[in-house]
Write a structure and sequence with these properties.
heterodimer, A: alpha/beta, Rossmann fold, five-stranded mixed sheet, 9 strands, B: 10 helices, about 35% helix
């Protein structure tokens, strides 16, 4: 598991995938807000193309920007346990210098933050870390959906590829094909519930991404066999041409179910 | 490692206020020199008279890394080699915090080697106490960048074929404002050096040559913990104020100890204020001659 996924232990992560310089700006603010709220490092990752892009960015007035700060402890130093979670699984966090004299360790720890290596402590800590994300999925996950209500073929994509996919879906609509798009703003957690609800009423789903088909596996898993899932991809060095995705959409729309 | 059990009927220790007593006994092996260094660090901290809520201890991974877990301050047991980047971030976010880093030779100079070089170069205002036991004790006594040439470790069974770092020379070369070395048996000198280092503005560094009887001592047939302590002290020669490049650590000949560097140099924050805060009125008032728009 370590070799394949970078960890043999269990974890949940929040990752955001911007599709434009504007989203780089907006998602950066959201990433900090999520991180402060959920007490978790949030990862904002852009494609190379997004990183090299020049596009107009509208920077809002400061007072229009929503800022979320971490929950601070309200109890005394003697009563404060840095990892004792509230009902929603998130523990209030004291800052260094606040007088709480906290201890932070990378080892498995108890509610005090002290190393605790037994199976019970491991179970409690990992469950809390995983559950605080899993149980708040609906608040964290964001997608931008296009023509989903009557779509027969749904393209799922993220990052720069989502822009190619959006063009392909619009082109398909112009040709009379009932295509739809799910653009993943948050890639992790993956929107399983949305895919599960959409899959049974579509003829096919297509993942458009620049790799050999990694997120396609998630899509396939979430669709659960309710509709066929295919992949449009290249192995990098160029972006996906909308025509390539349009061809796949047209093909899926005409194939017998 | 021993399992922590409550120790009963023990009279209070003068340092109890600075200790997470509920975590004692500690995990260090019998005869380990880290306890001595820890005690010197605690005494030096107490000596400063600083408000404990303004002090933070940061450590990396390893035997010495566990020190942060026993001190009742804001304390951070960070990932391997990353004590200095963590401490740098802390210092930048809260420049008034007094930051003390304690870690081993492997953590600070192998895994975290580049961080050490750049923290010293930037002259981050912090104090680093390095417990040098010549090997990776916690993981079973592997060779470290401090292992003396020819010394046996679990990964150099015929003796280490590598020349070790001279940690004090490295610190001085990279720009540290205070550099000293003692052995764990020279407690008074060590304590006063750590006190000086804490009070020093800029990047201060204290190296402590420390016995690791369970691993390094055992493999090199150096006898009991006490014999190791005495051996290091016996080899030590006090030569303060010499060029740090001549302050060698050669366990077969001599271990040069003393205070090698004590200089003044602008800190990172000094330069940062100057370069980035020019437009602040109070800064301009303080530096009227500075050209506008520099």
């Amino acid at each position: 598991m370590q070799a394949r996924w970078g960890s043999h232990g269990h974890y949940e992560i929040i990752a955001l995938s911007p599709s434009s310089p504007q989203e780089m700006f907006d998602f950066t603010i959201r990433a900090f807000n999520l991180s402060e709220y959920y007490r978790l490092p949030v990862i904002l990752l852009a494609d190379e193309t997004i990183g090299h892009m020049n596009e107009r960015v509208v920077i809002p007035q400061e007072e229009d920007i929503e800022i979320v700060n971490r929950r601070k402890p309200t109890v005394s130093r003697e009563d404060y346990l840095p990892y004792e979670a509230d009902a929603d699984g998130i523990a209030p966090m004291a800052n260094c210098g606040d007088g709480y004299r906290i201890h932070v360790t990378g080892l498995t720890h108890d509610d005090r933050g002290y190393p605790a290596m037994d199976a019970k402590a491991q179970e409690k800590m990992i469950s809390r870390l995983v559950d605080k994300i899993r149980k708040n999925r609906d608040k964290i996950i964001r997608t931008q959906n296009l023509y989903l209500d009557d779509a027969e073929v749904v393209v799922v994509s993220y990052g720069i590829s989502a822009r190619s996919a959006m063009q392909a879906v619009r082109d398909a609509r112009n040709e009379g094909i009932k295509a739809g798009l799910i653009k993943l703003d948050t890639v992790w957690p993956f929107p399983e519930e949305l895919i599960r609800s959409v899959a049974p009423r579509t003829r096919a789903m297509i993942m458009a991404e620049i790799n050999g088909g990694q997120m396609a596996l998630e899509l396939e898993r979430s669709a659960g066999g309710a509709c066929p899932v295919s992949l449009v991809s290249n192995l990098g060095g160029k972006i996906l041409h909308p025509g390539l995705i349009l061809n796949a959409v047209a093909k899926a729309a005409t194939e017998k179910p | 490692m021993t399992t922590a059990k409550a120790v009963k009927n023990v009279p209070p220790h003068p340092m109890d206020g600075l200790l997470r007593t509920e975590r004692i006994p500690h995990i260090w092996c019998p005869g380990c020199g880290i306890g001595t260094v820890f005690s010197a660090v605690l005494a030096a901290i107490k000596n400063t008279g600083w408000d404990p809520n303004t002090i933070a201890m940061v450590s990396g991974i390893g035997c010495t890394g566990r020190m942060a877990g026993y001190i009742r301050l804001d304390s951070f047991h960070t990932t391997h080699g990353r004590a200095l980047p963590f401490a740098t971030g802390l210092k930048l976010a809260k420049p008034d915090t007094k930051v003390i880093i304690v870690s081993g030779d492997g953590d600070l100079f192998a895994i975290g080697g580049n961080h050490f070089i750049h923290a010293a170069r930037r002259n981050m205002d912090m104090t680093v106490v390095c417990v040098n036991n010549f090997n990776y004790g916690m993981t079973g006594g592997q060779q470290a960048p401090s292992t003396p040439l020819g010394a046996k470790t679990t990964t150099t069974v015929n003796g280490s074929p590598e020349e070790p770092f001279n940690l004090c020379d490295l610190a001085a070369t990279c720009g540290a404002t205070y550099v000293a070395r003692w052995t764990a048996m020279q407690v008074r000198s060590l304590r006063s050096s750590i006190s000086e280092a804490l009070e020093k503005r800029g990047f201060s560094f204290v190296e402590v040559i420390t016995p690791c009887p369970s691993s390094f001592g055992r493999r090199n047939r150096m006898g009991t913990a006490l014999e190791m302590m005495k051996f290091y002290q016996g080899r030590s020669v006090i030569r303060s104020d010499i060029d740090p490049s001549e302050a060698v650590v050669d366990i077969d000949r001599e271990i040069v100890v003393g205070k090698f560097v004590d200089i003044e140099r602008p800190t990172f924050m000094d330069h940062y204020e100057k370069v980035n805060r020019l437009n602040l009125p109070q800064w301009r008032a303080m530096h009227p001659d500075h050209q506008k728009g520099r």
